[in-house]
Amino acid sequence: MTLEAIVGFLQDGSKFLTWVNLLELDEWEEEFGMAIASPLSFACLNGLEATARRLILDGADINAPGAYHGSPLRGAALRGEEAIVQLLLDQGADVNAQSDSHGSALLAASKNGHRTVVQLLLTHGADVNSMNSCYGSALAAAIDQGDNATAQLLLDHGAEASDIALYNASWSGNEAMVRLLLEHGADVNSTVDPVGSVLQAAVKKGHETIIQLLQEHGAEMNMGDAAHSRRQLQRQ
Q1: Regions of the chain where pLDDT drops below 50
Q2: Where are the beta strands (DSSP E) in the chain?
């Protein structure tokens, strides 16, 4: 299919909407009360750089929100489409636009291991400490995926060593990241509602070296934690 044909299809409102609904490519507008993602968002999400350029040239809203994947920038960041991310930023895309359910472009790139896109977004002023109700911060999302290199990059750009970031590192047994977060001032006695404390995360998963590390940094173990830790040791 030629570029002209693709652009023509995406710009035909009735055909585009029918295609989206038939293939369930996005959440339904009537059910969720949110706008279906724009043609530009779908082009960016699927790596169609030439199509994205043409749609922008034809006046597409560069910050148009979408129900599930959010703005065009967030869709491109989610898929690691560095060239399209650069294009959108050059055209003035809002680097800190938020998806209602999945957060910012920075969080999307961090959660999916796209470190070069993370660097690009940070260079263009992305809020490194922007929070989302589902995933927390970009740092917490990177740690949840075990991506220490991206986590280090975010810390180098001022990311806060948040409670949920330390919890994720403790839960997953990521000793190197636990140490790094503690060095960056993470609260060793922090609690993440409703799941519990950082120490409880390590105890529940049986990560003895992390339990010891947290205690060495002042973590307080209650009687329930101690009993659970003993049971974990007995099973090993």
Answers
A1: 22-24, 28-33, 223, 226-236
A2: 98-99, 103-104, 191-192, 196-197
pLDDT at 14: 62
At 85 the pLDDT is: 98
Residue 99 has φ and ψ, to the nearest 5°, of -80, 140
219 is written with which tokens? 């973590």
Q: Is 119 left (phi over 0), alpha (psi -120 to 50) or beta?
A: alpha
Specify the pLDDT at position 233: 41
Q: Give me the pLDDT at residue 8, please.
A: 65
- Tokens 């994720």 belong to 168
Element of type H or E holding 168: helix 163-172
Write the CA distances from 119 to 70, 74, 90, integer angstroms: 20, 14, 15
Q: How far lies 100's CA from each of 93, 138, 156, 163, 169, in Å? A: 17, 15, 27, 22, 26
In contact, 208 and 233? CB cutoff 8 Å? yes
In the 3-class helix/strand/coil scheme, how is 16-41 assigned residue by residue?
HHHHHHHHCCCCCHHHHCCCCCCHHH
Q: Are 204 and 174 in contact (CB under 8 A)?
A: no
- Other CB atoms within a 10 A radius of the CB of residue 105 amount to 34
Find out whether 139 and 170 touch, Cβ atoms under 8 Å. no
C-alpha distance from residue 235 to each of 49, 50, 201, 228 (Å): 54, 58, 17, 11
Start-to-end C-alpha separation, the chain: 59
3-class state of residue 206 by DSSP: coil
Q: Looking at residue 72, what is its pLDDT?
A: 93
- Rounded to an integer, what distance in angstroms lies between the CA atom of residue 109 and that of residue 115? 7
